[in-house]
Request: fold
Amino acid sequence: MNSLYDEILSILHSVWNRRWLALSVAWAVCLLGWLVVAMIPNTYESRARIFVQLDDALAEQVGINSADRKRDIERIRQTLTSAVNLEKVVRSTRIGEDVSSPRQMEGVVLGLAKDIKVVSTQDNLFEITAVSKNGSLSDAENAKLAQDIVQKMIDIFREENLSGGRGEMTETLEFVNQQLQQRERELEQAEQRRLAFEAKNPDMIQGGQASMQRLETARNDVRGLDADIAAAQAALAAINGQLAGTPPTIATAGPGGGAKGALAQANSDLASMRARGLTDGHPDVIALRNQISALRAAANAEGPGGGTPNPAYTSLQSIKAEREANVQALMSRRASMQSDISGMTARQINDPEVAAEAQRIGRDYDVLRQQYDKLLQDREELKLRGEVKTEREAVKFQVVDPPTTPRTPIAPNRPILLIGVLIVGIGGGIGAAFALGQLRSTFSTQAKLERLSGLPVLGAISHTLTDAARDLRRRRLKLFIGGSSALACLCVLLLAAEFVQRGMLA
Reply:
């Protein structure tokens, strides 16, 4: 502990003996540091927030959903700080006053890209931040420049979404119109080739159709007729089944019905007697049963011709005849169409090159026609989407917070830097004095001399001052205190000047 205490005393004694060196170094470091701090330009920052509304019912109806609009806004946000847009900012603000060459413009644009930020704080909320630290401008001009930059970015943000989107839609429509014109010319050429082929090969044409097209149509019709014939035959089979289970005549009670009618009447009377409670042993029941036995034999002898004709059977017979005629008509039509197909196939076999040419011309014309119709439909949809975007303004902007006017610089923190330079200057002076003391082989205490030499120290001679020397020491001490106080006062004055300057700007 005593050794540490002696070491501290030694350091303090060494620095105190070289206090003028420490004060000089402190003044030099502080003056140089404060000059550097004074040369650092103030940086002023301006902010603005924009709210983007993406909801529109009509846009949803024409296929412009919220995801599409969000992608458009995100694309605009990412391209907002492009070189083209930043060049617009440079030319419309004071930044471009001294720009006279493309190389200078490129350098200014690269520097401005670092000073502008566009971030999305929420789904529909964007924040634009710009800083200005031009050393050739005053603080008030830098503050105004930062505000102007943010305002210009807001204008570009709006233009990129409205007029930029309108221009993009116009370019798209122009491209589609060019494609339509090209398809129209190709379609006319295909039509001319088809007409020339039809005029040269009239036997391959019927009703304005090429042979291959008619052949394909006929085959499709035959396939349809096969299905119709199968359905008609199934319906005829169902009617035949119903006829098999339907009797041609119906037995009716009474004399008009013959033996079968009398048998039916007797069975009805027997059922009525039993319903009244008569048993099989009753004389009337026995007599009626004998009569029924006789009538049954007579009805069997009468044969199937007896009874009344069944109207359901007659109706089923007429339906059967109608369906048989339908099946025959379909079969005849199929045979006729099959004959036409055979004839067209034979002509194609006899002249395959002409048939292939007809097929190719027809196929090319159909493909071009489909492409033309599809492009025409796409153009109408694009026009409707463009009108909704431009007229309805599916994406609407609202400036929530206008560009702020900076009152105080965000950088540098000059008061902290001034105080920091003072501390560094004092530390540098103390360090210089201490380093110089370490370089000289002197000993400030007896203990240090004894420890380093390894020899016992018998005593020390004290330093005695005269009155004149004491007066000189007091004057030098006052001068040292005055110099130190002046350094501190200068730092205080610089701090006061900084706050006064900020107050004047605000």
About this structure: The two ends are 56 Å apart (CA to CA). The beta strands are 44-53, 116-120, 125-132, 205-206, 209-210, 249-250, 308-309, 396-401. The mean pLDDT is 78. Residues 2-40+412-505 form one domain.
